[in-house]
Amino acid sequence: MKKIAPSILSADFSRLDKEVRAVERAGADLIHVDVMDGHFVPNITIGPLVVTGLKKLTSLPLDVHLMIEEPGRYIEAFAQAGATWITIHAEVCRQLRPMIRRIRQLNVRPGVALNPATPLRRLYPVLEEIDLVLLMSVNPGFGGQAFIPAVLKKVEQLREMIDRNNYSLEIEVDGGIKLENIGGVSRAGGDIFVLGTGIFKTANYRETIRRLKREVL
Fold first, then answer.
1. Where are the beta strands (DSSP E) in the chain?
2. Does the annotation mark 63 as catalytic?
3. Are 132 and 109 in contact, with CB atoms under 8 Å apart?
4. Cα 186–191–197 angle (5° rounding)?
5. Is 29 an active-site residue?
6. Which of 54, 77, 85, 178 has the most CB atoms lying inside 10 A of its own CB?
7. pTM of the model
8. pLDDT at 143
């Protein structure tokens, strides 16, 4: 089943509880949580305490995306906070397998993210061990950027590889997704679609998510 994942990075943090409950009522499938450290990316966002709070607000799975230089220092804290998925970046992990196994030992679903310029071959040794590949379709660090069209080919290549080898994992795509392009990302092979401004900057979350889901059927 295709899934819509609102990214709280674009929500109104002065009323975060209401925003999260609103997208849950509107039909969101999970909540995407962007964690940035000011080093791997130039922005700084949130930590485990916010994830702990989110866990109390919603029954939706929490999809925690660690855009940080030293994910190994924080995996346990985010697992204890209530993360359903923890996704780490291949660009900062020379040895992905031990980190992936550590995440799974904490009863959390492991994922690996790739920036637009990082080749798929970086994932080849671990594709059988992860539940999620997050393909960034913008350069990470800030919301509201335009989708990079070249990433569509990457989605297609990964989908073909997954299907050919019967890997049990999902493709998540994050960055610049909106109503006008989500259908193409879905046809290329995407399973989970992360939207920030594409949901939280619209007037009617329920109608927006309804239209998005219609595009990915």
1. 3-6, 31-36, 62-67, 85-89, 109-114, 132-136, 170-174, 192-195
2. no
3. yes
4. 75
5. no
6. 85
7. 0.96
8. 67
For residues 41 and 16, is the Cβ–Cβ distance under 8 A? no
Angle (CA) 69 75 81, round 5°: 130
Mean pLDDT of 189-204: 96
| Side chain identity at residue 57, one-letter code | L
Question: What mean pLDDT is predicted for residues 130-158?
Answer: 91
User: pLDDT tens digits for 93-143?
Assistant: 888 999 999 999 999 999 999 999 999 999 999 999 999 999 999 998 766
Please provide the average confidence, as pLDDT, over all residues in the chain. 95
Distances in Å between the Cα of 146 and the Cα atoms of 16, 42, 154, 163 are 25, 18, 17, 29
Among 29, 63, 131, 174, which one carries the catalytic annotation?
174
Q: How far apart are CA 195 and CA 134, in angstroms?
A: 13
Q: pLDDT tens digit string along 27-47?
A: 999 999 999 988 888 888 899
Catalytic residue among 34, 37, 131, 191: 34
Phi-psi region of 10 (alpha: psi -120 to 50; beta: other; left: phi over 0): alpha
Q: Tell me the domains of the chain and their CATH numbers.
A: 3-216 (3.20.20.70)
